[in-house]
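ARCHIVE ENTRY
Sequence with per-residue tokens
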Amino acid sequence: MGNEKIHMKYLQLGGIGGRGGVVRFFMLAHGLEYEEELYGMTDGSWTERKESMFKTGENPAGTLPLLEVDGKQVTQHVAAMRYIARVRDLTTGDAYGEFVQDAFADQYQLVRDDWVRHSFGSEEDKKKLKEEVVKRHFKVLDGLITKWQTEKVYLSLGKNGMPLWGDAAAFGIVYDHIKTGAITKEEVDANYPKLAAIYSNFSEIPSVSQWISEKSG
């Protein structure tokens, strides 16, 4: 089990999380030491970095986040969280407990893709996200938590008693929808109780709460 500081390359999104934000929330929840190398979306630094990733083969997909974990480069944010959990001995130690994390995260990826597509699209796209898309997706996610969860609040817990990658994804996607105005916390509380419980409890983890507070200031 390694204990080197994790290095994450990602986009400078301010208070928005995005895919890299989910990894960040996961690392914060588990008290993992990490450092970030962030690229601006509007100053040309990300465009330049992306071209470099293609040319050097650092990441042929040209996507972020890109992490270095104990000397290994890993991409794809859900797979990266799962990898971190395994090499840092944070998994459930139970096959079903890990299945529910994976299964929920698979569905989450569809929601994340739609959030990106609509949040950074036209005004009509943003309106559709708020009036239709988020409601459809959150209903499904809430139902899956109801079906699969093995704990009172979370899908399952790691050996250290903390939430894992699927739960981090649940928190991150609710956080970003609220942050970008696609839904309010009050609407989540009223209509999606399982998602609301994960969001509320995850946001109260001291390190997560501190990060949110700093970005909101």
